[in-house]
Amino acid sequence: KAGVTQTPRYLIKTRGQQVTLSCSPISGHRSVSWYQQTPGQGLQFLFEYFSETQRNKGNFPGRFSGRQFSNSRSEMNVSTLELGDSALYLCASSLGGQGAEAFFGQGTRLTVV
Amino acid sequence: KQEVTQIPAALSVPEGENLVLNCSFTDSAIYNLQWFRQDPGKGLTSLLLIQSSQREQTSGRLNASLDKSSGRSTLYIAASQPGDSATYLCAVRRSQAGTALIFGKGTTLSVSS
Q: Which residue among A88, A102, A107 places its CB closest to the CB of B99?
């Protein structure tokens, strides 16, 4: 079966712009989580959506937001981009229950110039 | 606050060696622990998931153990191959209500032929 699909794979944006990233989870998975990966901080949790509702949120500024649609696809938006937002953004999907295994996509590499 | 540490940060071994990667976490109240593999510039591939009630999981040449009381997990790789070269990440699940994972910084493994 198809895995987690993230689009686009690469993005270059200018400081101050906004960007939207997309994630299609594995069919049947209702939970989508987003993570930011940088060389200095490693992998950090942004937020999780389950059945169109944000269920958990990490410690990121309000410029980072997301949503989930009825088909479980999720989008992440970053407004007023800063150079420090350059990172690999990873999406994970799971069934959402206790103990569920997380499956990750290939990520979107965002470069802010 | 849950913190996850992986030692060593980097490891180089000749092909055929058996090796152990270590992961420690500060709060033993976890729901599960997951080991991932990441190739350069790519997403994460799930290797093994250990629930908090389990002591170990095996998949092919990989064996992961979990000692919740001491806050430790190990990933054992038997008969290493050049194709095993990658960064290995461990992550603990911190919340019953969601799938937020706390990651270590990883161990970068290089297996030479």
A: A102
